[in-house]
Amino acid sequence: MDIVMDADALNEFLSSEFPQVAAEYRVERVDRSRLMVRLKVGEAHLRPGGTVSGPSIFALADLAVYCAILARIGPVALAVTTNASIDFMRKPEAGKDLIAECRVLKLGRVLAVAEALIYSKGGAEPVARCSMTYSIPPKR
Amino acid sequence: MDIVMDADALNEFLSSEFPQVAAEYRVERVDRSRLMVRLKVGEAHLRPGGTVSGPSIFALADLAVYCAILARIGPVALAVTTNASIDFMRKPEAGKDLIAECRVLKLGRVLAVAEALIYSKGGAEPVARCSMTYSIPPKR
Amino acid sequence: MDIVMDADALNEFLSSEFPQVAAEYRVERVDRSRLMVRLKVGEAHLRPGGTVSGPSIFALADLAVYCAILARIGPVALAVTTNASIDFMRKPEAGKDLIAECRVLKLGRVLAVAEALIYSKGGAEPVARCSMTYSIPPKR
Amino acid sequence: MDIVMDADALNEFLSSEFPQVAAEYRVERVDRSRLMVRLKVGEAHLRPGGTVSGPSIFALADLAVYCAILARIGPVALAVTTNASIDFMRKPEAGKDLIAECRVLKLGRVLAVAEALIYSKGGAEPVARCSMTYSIPPKR
């Protein structure tokens, strides 16, 4: 599974295709084994009490998996999530960005499976884990 | 599992506790068998092409399950999602609100399990299904 | 989604294709809305203490979903499970068979999604819930 | 999370508590980061065509997670699975045992979360991945 889009290419793609959310995220690293994305945590992501909301963590995992697949199949693909399973394990630390660390487990002709661990920036224990299946559109 | 908060009480609770998101949702019906919540779909929920985003559907399911649990245990509880599994099955219809129809399968001392089907308003086939586990805080 | 295999046809198919397990199960009812399968609980399904084991409940849910898909696409298909999510909610009653009640939520060209609730025979509350995705083989 | 039961202790525990299944499995390695269990694949685990069945893979993952938790909390505990999510990604190789490699992500007071990757013995790519939540019984 060669990498065909690096972190810069992915960030540019997000900015042009998803301008409304791209400013919240930054792909920080891509290689054959791992992709890392940062969520720049802001007011919109917080629950009362200052914790990052579950849906914001889900959105980060989804974006990380999406980028990890695009990194391998290129920017034209219209991949969509078909299944996700997520465990919320710890409260994110207040005032810290979140980092998703994503690994692609299978990149098939029709389906891709990946998993992500989510950490508070600098934290040792994962806040959440997520596995996702994406449907890969047929090549034209 | 008696209902201790009706739709009005839940909507008031959301407005006071989650003012930043409450305007997007409305609990439309609560009884012992079902709870229904509407997501008023707006620009912020859309992906390019006009489809409601996966994270927005996840957030709707999460809110529906949360409300279904509060309807049974009352407004003081600090319940949190511990696990969610979601299947995205069909593209939501453009320009339609989404309706989550939620059913509580178990309300234990420590854990609650519920499932939700998500429909485009007026649609016959579900757009997504979701099951969630919530951790119930111990009574004081 | 017309039904092309009824309960008798499914039971015969199981007997001829999966003789080693078919004796444990019986498809009891199939229609457009529901399929019901019984697990005849025996020693091999029990954990110490007399409870049906988790893997036996998983196997029942898997078989129910498989039959519900075959009921709609016919006996030739080589459908395989790609994803399953299961919640174990209550202890099955000792000495009772288990009933899986399965509903197909989507039958696409490539993927099918179904869910099953598992009950102790005669019980009112579900023992477990399961959702599964099956990959449908391409038509020849 | 100190290890309080090593591989030998776990294998002895399985033999005495689950004599009907213990012969199929062997815990091969336990340390703070990983636990590995082998499923000795036999006729009973196969589907027509010689592939290991989905429920057999589920049972292996379940046993691996159970052992990984016992390795940390000791043999007396009556932990039970509350949730599992599994992705079946590749066909196991015919005639090979399966290896589950399990990692504990959280060991809380009430819930434990772990994940397992399943490989055909000697294979480089995982056959399946599974994440599970166990409920930990209160200390007496």
Automatic annotation (TrEMBL), chains A, B, C, D:
Q: Which residues form the signal peptide?
A: none
Q: Which UniProt keywords apply?
A: Hydrolase
Q: Which Pfam families does the entry link to?
A: 4HBT
Q: Which domain of life is it from?
A: Bacteria
Record's keyword annotation contains Nuclease: no
Query: What residues does the Thioesterase domain cover?
Result: 49-125
Against InterPro entries, the record matches this protein to: ACOT13, HotDog_dom_sf, PAAI_dom, Thioestr_dom
Gene3D superfamilies listed in its UniProt record: Hotdog Thioesterase
Identify a single GO molecular function assigned to this protein. fatty acyl-CoA hydrolase activity
The family this protein is said to belong to = Belongs to the thioesterase PaaI family.
The family database entries (NCBIfam families) matched by this protein are listed as: unchar_dom_1 (TIGR00369)
Q: What is this protein called?
A: PaaI family thioesterase
Species per Swiss-Prot/TrEMBL record: Paracoccus saliphilus
